[in-house]
Structure formats: C-alpha cells, structure tokens
Amino acid sequence: MPETQNVYEIPIGPIHPALKEPIRLTFRVEGERIRGVDVRTGFAHRGIEFMGMKRNLIQTLYLSERICGICSISHPIAITLAVERAAGIEVPPRAQYLRVIYSELERIHSHLLWAGVAAHELGFDTLLHLTWKVREQVLDILEELSGNRIDYAIPIYGGVRRDIVPAQVPKVEAMVRYYRGLLDELLDAFLRDPSVEARTRNVGILTAEEADSLCAVGPTARASGLPKDVRQDRPYLVYGELGVKAITPRDYGLEPRGDVYDKAVVRLLEVGQSLDLIETCLVEMPDGEITSFPKIPALLAHLKKAEGEGLGWHEAPRGEVIHYIRLEAGVEEPVVWKVKAPTYSNVMSWVPMFRDQEVADIPIIAASIDPCICCMDRVHVVRDGSEATVQMEELLRLSREKTDRVTRRLSPVPRHGGWA
Amino acid sequence: MTADQVRRALTAAVPGLQPELRPRKVGVRAPVEVPELWAEVPREGLVAAVAALKAAGPLHISIISGRDVGEEIELLYHLAAGYGTPGGEVMVTLRVTVPKSDPTVPSICGILPGAETTEREKIEFLGVNFTGIPSTAHVFLPDGFPGHPWRKDDPETAKLVNRLVEWEGKDA
Amino acid sequence: MSALHLVWQAAAVLVGGGLLGLVYKGFDRKLAARMQARIGPPLRQPFLDVGKLLVKESVVPKDAVGWLFRAMPFLAVIASFTVLLYLPWGPFPAVLRSGGDAILVLYLLAVPAVAMALGGFASGSPLATVGAQREIVMLMSYEFPLAVAVVGVVWRLATLGGGPAFSLGAIAAAPLWAQVGPLGVIGLAILAACLLIVTPAELSKIPFDIPEAETEIAGGLMVEYSGTYLALFYLADAAKTIAMAALVVTLFAPYGIAGLLGLSGAGAQAVDLVFHLVKIFVVMFAAVTTVRVAMARLKIDQVARGFWLQITAVAVAGLVLLVLDRMVVG
Question: In this structure, which CATH number among 3.30.450.40, 3.40.50.300, 2.40.50.100, 3.30.460.80 belongs to the domain B3-144?
Fold first, then answer.
C-alpha cells in the first residue's frame, strides 16, 4: 500500500490530557495504525544543571530535590553519593539504612501513582481513584517522617537530616501490614481484570534485544525480561547486604513479553519488594549517628576544600539515576554537575514500542515507561462550598496544621480501613 | 564481570591505555568493593574501546557528561560494563578530550543505539560534532537556539544570563 | 385530538424529557462518584454545566466547515428529542404515533451519532477526525444487533396480531412475555440482554466512549465544540440517554403497578408514570452507570469485532428462537 496516500499526522502534546508533563509526540497515522513517531522534549527544560553550577553545594542539593516532585529522594541520594565520593565523606551506618527506607517508601508511592495514572489512561477511573486513595497511606507516613508529602529534604552530604524515632516505628510497620493486606487485591484488580488485560496485553512491546541496545533502565527493561536493577548489579548504601533481586515477570510465573501488562506486573511486585526491604531495614538498622557533619558550616568548609570527581547512582522508581560531580578546591559550587534521570534513558524505547500500534494505545504506551511527572502542589482549596484564593502564608499555615494533624493522629491502625 | 576482565578488554583494544581502578567500599555489616574504572582515551580509540567493552559483555551507557576546560572540551562517557550481572557491574568512565578548534568525536551509536539522546544533547550544549550520528535534531533546546550553554566563552549564553540577572535583579 | 392539545403534549414531553435527562445525568455522575470513593458533584451539576456553556463564547475554528459545524448540534438535539415524542410514557401513549414507529425510532437514534461524526469531520481537527471515524465504525458495529433486538420483538408481536405492525404503542399495551411460549421467553431474554449491551455503545459511555476518549484524542469529536454548540450536544446526550433507557423499558418491561395497588383514575396514572421513570432509571443505572465504573475503555477494533461477531451471533440466536416459537405457538 502506498504509504503517502492515507497517512496523516496527529500531534499529541505538549499539552494533552494523556500527558502529565509537557512533551510533544507527533504520530504519523494510517487509519488507526501508527506508522511513525517523532518525540520532541525540552518543554520543561529549566537549565537546572546550569543553575546548580552557579550555587554552593548545599543549595545544589536542594535544587536536585526539585528536579522532579516524585523522585525527591532519588536525585538527592545520587548527588550525595557523588559528592561524598568526590570529597571523601563517610556516611554513618544508621544513615545508610535510613536512606534505604526513605527511597523504598518513595518507590511505593511512585509505583502506586503510576498504577493510578495507567488506569486513568485506559479510561478505568474507578481503579485510579481507589489506587490513589490507598496511596495516601504511604504519603501520610512520609509526611509523618519528613514533614512533607513531596520534597522531603532528607539526604544531606554525610548522612540524613531526620531520624526515625522509636515512636514512629510502629506506624511504619502498620503501613507495611496495610499494604501487605492490599497487595493481593491490587494485583487482582490490575492483572486479572479482563478489560485491563484486553488493553495492555501485547500492547507497546519492547523486546529484550531492543531494551538492551537502547539502554532502557528500570521497570521498562525488567518487563522485557532483562534482570537489570542498579540495587542488585552495582551495590551502594546497604542494598548489597539486603539481597535485592531484580524483579521480572518471571517472578509472577509469566514469560516476559515486554508489553504494558508486564510493566504493570513488575511495578506492582516491586511494591511488595519495597515492603520487605523496609521491614528488614527497620529490624537491622543499628543505633548511632545519622550524619557525620551535624553542623552545616563545618560541612560547607569541608566541601570548599575538597577536590575530586565522583559518580553517584541509585535505582529510582523509574530506573537508574546517575549524577556526576566535579569539585575543585577553593570553589563553593560544583565545576561540573551532570544529572541523568531514568526517563532520559527510556525515551528512545518509545520508538519501537509505538511501532504499528493503534492510536488508542498511545496514552498507555506513553505512560508505560512512567515518564517522570512532576507533582502538582496543593494550591486550590474549596471551603464551605465557596472557592477562595489562598495566599502563600495561608497555604503554609494550612500545610503545617495538616502535618501536625497527621503526626498526632496517625495511629498504628490505618485510617482508610480497607480497599474500597 | 570483574574489573580485571574489563581492564584487559580495554588495554587490548586501545594500546597504551592506562585504566585507573578506583574501588569503593560499600556496605555496613560485610563491606564489599565495587569497582570503578577511569581511563583517558584518545578520540581515535573511543569506538574501539566501546566496541571492546560491548564484545566483552552486555554494555549500557548511562550518560555522557562534559565540560569546557579553556581551550579544550572534556567528554566523559559513563558506561556500565556487564550490565545486568548481579554484583558484577563495572562502572567504566572514558575521558575523551578534544580541542575547541576541532570538536569532533566519532559517534558510538553504531555500537550502542541508546547513546543517541545523550550525544545529541552534547551537540546542543557543548557544540561537539559527532560523526556518524543518525540524527542531529535538538533534544532539549528549541530549534535555532543561539549558542551552546555549557561553553564558558559563549557570548549568547552570557547575554541570556545577563538578561536573567537584569530581570531578577540578582544572581540568576 | 386538537392541534393545540398536541402542541401542549409535545411541549410537556420535550421539556420534561430534557429536565429528566439532566436530572438523571446528575444521579449518574453522583452515583458513579460514590462507587469510585469520591464525593462527586452536586445533583444539579448538569444544569450548572448547561447554564455555564450557554453563556460562554461559541468558537468556530478557522479550518472548520462553518455551516456544517454549526448545524450539526441542532440536528443532534432535534433528532434525540423527537425520539421522546415517539415513545409511550408509562400510562400515557406516545405523542406521535404511526404504524412503523419502531423503525423510525431506530433511525432517529442513529441521527445524533451521524450528526456528531459530521460535526467532527467539519471541525478540521485531526483529533476530531479520528473521533469521527471511530463514531462511524461504532455506528456500523452496534446498529445491527440493535435492529435485530428491536425488530425481533415488534415482529413477534405483529405475528400475534397485537395491533398495528412495528408499533411501539402496541407493545406497551400488550407485553410479549405472557404471550409467547418457553422458547420465545428465552429468545426475548437474549434480545433484552443484547439491547442492554448495546445501550452504553449507543450512548458512547465507557467502555464504548471511544469516539470521545479523553485521554487518547482529548474529547475526539467534541474537541472543537464550545459554548452553545457543546451545550446542545450535552442536551442531546441527556435526551438520548432517557430515550434509549425508555426504549428498553417499553420493549421489555411495559408494566404498571397501579393495578396491583388497586388504584384507578388520575392517581393510577401518576403512580404508573413515576414507576415508568423509576424503571428508566434502573435501566440507566444498570447499563450505563455501573458498567462505566467497572470497566476500562476498549479499543475500536475490539468493539467492532465484539459487536460484529459475538453480540450479533447472540442477537440472531435470540431472533431464531422467536421464529421457532412462532412455528410452535403460532
């Protein structure tokens, strides 16, 4: 069939209901079949690396947290590891465990977020609302532990900024139990629903060979059957001792096909894996210091003297994040700071995934690599049925009150009761 | 893969290469050493080095980072050799330095198609040319963006920064 | 019946049907929200929506075929409200009656879909074009089972000598279930099930909201419509929902309860009308609200295949059973 005859272009984005962040995908479509795709990124490029190279390292750390609202543990962990490597800073054992706990909490909330988004892309809003309802539990725990739902400001060079005190441990354990009880229902709702299966099986396939040559990372690669997981392959923090194993659809008794269904399998199973890791860490975590530099000025002085380069890596919920940093003595700001987010590696895998699929599959395939989506803040409040614009001070006061409420009331018994 | 295997593959492919091993101690209860190799590679030897790593085992490119060092541009290829081997991945960083007068590097997309995004990013930000790259379209910056933001002597970037400083009234 | 009386009746049905459609839409959204563990909008939200749309600017895209783009919402509204005039309302016979009104209703139900597709093609947007193509494919897919179900029922009634052929009024007056044999009952049940499956497709609701598919084609056929034109499509959808549910009730459950309660006169009419509205609500709740919260959106090829093969086969099986019943019972 001559391709030029009936091929027309459909633009998706930069602003489109299926996309939660600006990106432009231009599809060449023949009827309902996709013949080609052109991916254009950069609509949210803020020059963060450039900004970081103009600020001191502590400010750069805060900046790294704001690269992405969801990965606000992953990027700080990667940059602290890189800087600690470059400046020769040791991290106390307890801090290493704490970093693992926080990053696994982040993984749970990120994967549940993805599950909701995926359900929404399929037009299954009920599943979206239920998933996001149960996701509140882990966000409440994160707010209890760090004071924030996102942007936790936990890792710092040489350790972490907040400890988990004994009174908080039962609450975290209660959360783990809550999700354990829900996991089967979650798997049931996603993986055994005929309409979800009809929309995700054999859709957006990325073969193992393609995933390997295009350097895909994280669940995107694992769903294709490649057991790649930075936590397992290139140990850091205490992951080497925790015995992390890369999860592929084989762990669910399926032969990996690399389709959207497999990606859902991997992500949902990883929620269970994260629960195990959190539980182990809570038990094994030794007592002791949480940072080797309790005083920030001392830390800054040490960093100013430091000279060297370092790499820091971390398995973020979406895959490998890696930071390269170069420090020079006498300069407060990093000379080079390069950030690689997981989506950076995964964008290329969209091209084979979209090939010969249908227009209807665009949203779920686009979502299947879980492109890094920035969280929206809570800025719109409806009270007494009337909408009121909320000033920043008011918003700050309200959030503090809410954190206070969560911290005070979060009982060991989960508030949400159950799944429905 | 072990660091030794990777080192042998590299030195066999590019004679005279001197990879530096920088192991890092990882863990609390039973610490292990995670190897990292750093090597300076002349640009003529880059493709051979990457091909040797690819031949030795599954290879992954994380990112190419770079910086402007006065008269030269330094590119760092951060690769993971033995990708997907539990506890057996070696982070290899190849350092390639090119003069600003001729910032040309051979593309490694032929060996690792996944390197295309990061190579294209370097074209935009550092003004490096890659020979044999499938596409040179911009990834992040708008088409027709003037200058290369990571070049320290780039007048267009200086203009942009100055505009921001004027606008914000302080450090941009 | 005087012309004035007819006009009065028609006005009552049209206004009442429109209001009822919006009220039911409110219930549909509220109940769906509760099933999804949300609070949901207030019941009067559809009225607010229409009110808001009516005061908004109606933008006609530069690339659109202007007259077609503007005319289609009116066509959709007129067609879907006309259906209401041909349907009996519980104890009250249909305002407009003729011999073949069952067939006419089938065609009228297809008109809003065609109008939306034409409006989509006319709006000059690639997303709307995709939506319009999908709408046409949907129409071709569900129309056959729908026709089989409706025609099967009215044909069987005609063979029993129940009034004028293909008349909805006749079937409302003489429910079929009691008149056919056991084979016929099974056949009727199958056709009723088919009609319930066709209902969300006819109304473009999840899992069949493919022509609009918010996350895929950003509202599809509706993407360029705004203001008054969008309000008209909204009203057409509300009226069509009522019409479709009322058609199901009329064909398969045209029973009143006034007799059971021992009422007569105006009281009986009022009770039966309310009961009729309750039945319409039950059909909408079962075929639209619960289905759309329980499923993901299907793809156009899956829907086309499903309707062409499975649903059509089942519907034809129901029809064959009715034919056999005719041979046995007479």
Answer: 3.30.460.80
